Amino acid sequence: MTMPEYEPLTEEEVRDDLLSRVIDIVSHPEQQETVSLSFISEYSDADLAHLLESVTDQYRSLLCRKIPVDRGWPILHLLHYETARHVLDLLSTEQMQGLLKRISELDILTFAEILPNEVVEDYLDQQASLTTEQIQQALSYQDEEVGRYLNSDILRSRPTAPISRVLERLSKHKSKEFVAVYAVDAKGEYQGACTIEQLRHVEPSTPLSEIITDIEPVLDEQDITKAAQHLNPVAGFAWYPVQKEGKIIGAIAASTLMLRLKERSLEVLASDTAQDEEDLFTPVSVAAKMRAIWLTTNLLTAFLASWVIGLFGEALQQVVALAILMPVVASMGGIAGSQTLAVALRGIALNHLKRSNLKLLLDKELKIAAFNGVLLGALIGLVVSYWFNSVPLGGIIFVAIVFNSLAAASSGTVIPFVLKQMKIDPAVAGSVILTTVTDVVGFFIFLGLGSLLLLS
Fold it and tell me: How large is the angle between the packed helices 355-388 and 320-349, nearest 10 degrees?
């Protein structure tokens, strides 16, 4: 009797199963006595990075305790930058010390902005003077500039130099791992590039000029995404020259450029975004603060629209106040919903939002909506009470703003997920349905309460 053959799980199925198991264990504390989260160490770095991106900071804190410290940096490099910031903030002093014992030059360059200043300074103090100079040079560039990621281990040579001379120079620096050779003339102007491998497959007497390839250099202060977009790949070349003021100062890995281009493609896929800094499970306090800035900005434009409608108030007679304030209710609900919709769309695009963690996201969004709804609703209510000399009207718009914010958060979270399950593009249809929900809910509550309390 032959045993049935089972197809191995796909990468997505493995991650969905891992996410469901973790949420089930954490959601039922009584299970934690018999079921430990230590099983997560059996999964790959990529799987664990995906898991951290797909849960709230409460779950992240528990997971970080179970991830072996020697896998910390590799996993951090796979995370969205803001998620990495949140994870580092959640680490205990002991966990952070364990990470710092294993920190490398790449870790410093990548996370310099979110690591404590003393950590960066202590690392530089421990390095050789040449290494320190190179790191400080890299840190002088912005995070999105090419110069931040350049490798200075290159060899410059005259085009007329024979290959034997170039190989001799390479062998003198055994401590260095050169990544490329660049031909420059007497004035230091770039002439072309070749790989180390090419040097070993030609006659030693051959001049360097006969094997170099004309590869367009990348500028040191150029945005890394734009550099990747305009890159002309050349077969066999893994490193591309970086130029500053007409001189070649290093090389940048093609893999670095391609990785940034891939990340940018995912960002474009979820381009309808509330904040570049916010990931799927940014802590409530941080996310609420970032969104409140734009909600307040929108509030100013909403009152401007109300003032314009108010110019025609005499024609509306008894309902003039309600008509003037209608755009405020609709606009606040719409912008709050679009922010939630943007985060959900990004979660779908990055494959982080699943049925198993939908409730986590909904809980988070409702908390943010309640916070901003009460805060801005109270502000609007006070302004309206003073403006129209009517406390009941201020109370009506306060209630309408709060409930419309909650409706916007709920619909902004659930609508794109439901549309995806129905195989409808949530990026196209989501905003249309969301606007309808927020307008109907907002106007029904606002005008309904107004009719009952003001016109009865």
Answer: 160
Residues 278 and 402 occupy one common structural domain: yes
Most confident of 292-296, 347-351, 384-388: 384-388
Per the structure, the complete domain to which residue 60 belongs is given by: 11-102
Residue that the structure tokens 């959601």 belong to: 27
**Residue 279 within any structural domain of the chain:** yes
* pTM score, whole prediction: 0.62
Single-letter amino acid, residue 162: P
The CATH number linked to 211 is 3.10.580.10
Are 207 and 317 found together in one domain? Answer: no
- Give the model confidence (pLDDT) of 86-100 as tens digits: 888 888 888 888 888
Q: How many domains does the chain have?
A: 3
Q: Going along 1-72, which residue ranges are E strands?
A: none
Strand order in the sheet with 247-253: 218-219, 239-244, 247-253
Strand partners, 240: 252
Cα distance between residue 161 and residue 47, in whole Å: 49
428 shares its domain with 296 = yes
Q: Are residues 82 and 217 in the same domain?
A: no
- Decide: residue 62, CB within 10 A, 0-12 exposed, 13-18 middle, 19+ buried: middle
pLDDT digits (tens, 9 = 90+) for 314-344: 334 445 677 778 788 888 888 888 888 888 8
Nearest-angstrom CA–CA distance, 88 and 95? 9
What band does 306 get if pLDDT is binned at 50, 70 and 90? low
Please state, rounded to an integer, the average pLDDT across all residues of the chain: 78
Assess whether 379 and 435 both reside in one domain: yes
Residue carrying the six token digits 């949420």:
23
284 shares a domain with 219: no
| The pLDDT of residue 282 | 65
